């Protein structure tokens, strides 16, 4: 079995929340847990660009 990061996502513009392998791929890509992915999708939707922006802005707000 290949690792989730070796697998390609089913869609290149959205996370398929109904597909466990797709969720695992994007969790690995963003370096997050699945519950974080669910919360982010509830806030900003399942488009990769929206999620990328959300996680980037979240990183920037973390104090160093």
- Spans of at least 5 consecutive residues with low confidence: none
Q: What does the largest sheet look like?
A: none
Structural class: mainly alpha
Give the CA-based shape.
globular
Query: How much is the average pLDDT?
Result: 86
Helix coverage percent of residues?
40-55%
Q: H/E element string?
A: HHH
How many distinct domains? 1
Could you explain the architecture of this structure?
This protein is mostly helical and about 60 residues long. The chain has one domain. About 55% of the residues lie in helices and about 0% in strands. It has helices at about 20-30, 35-45, 50-60. The longest helix has 13 residues, at about 50-60. The model has no long low-confidence stretch (mean pLDDT about 85).
Summarize this structure as a short list of keywords or feature phrases.
mainly alpha; single chain; globular; 64 residues
Q: Brief description of this entry?
A:
This protein has 64 residues and is mostly helical. It has helices at 20-30, 34-44, 48-60.
Secondary structure elements and their pairing?
Blueprint: H1 20-30, H2 34-44, H3 48-60
């Amino acid at each position: 079995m290949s690792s989730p990061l070796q697998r390609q996502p089913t869609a290149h513009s959205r996370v398929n929340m109904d597909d466990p392998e797709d969720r695992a791929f994007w969790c690995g890509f963003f370096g997050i847990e699945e519950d974080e992915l669910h919360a982010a999708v509830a806030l900003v939707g399942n488009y990769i660009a929206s999620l990328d922006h959300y996680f980037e802005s979240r990183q920037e707000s973390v104090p160093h």
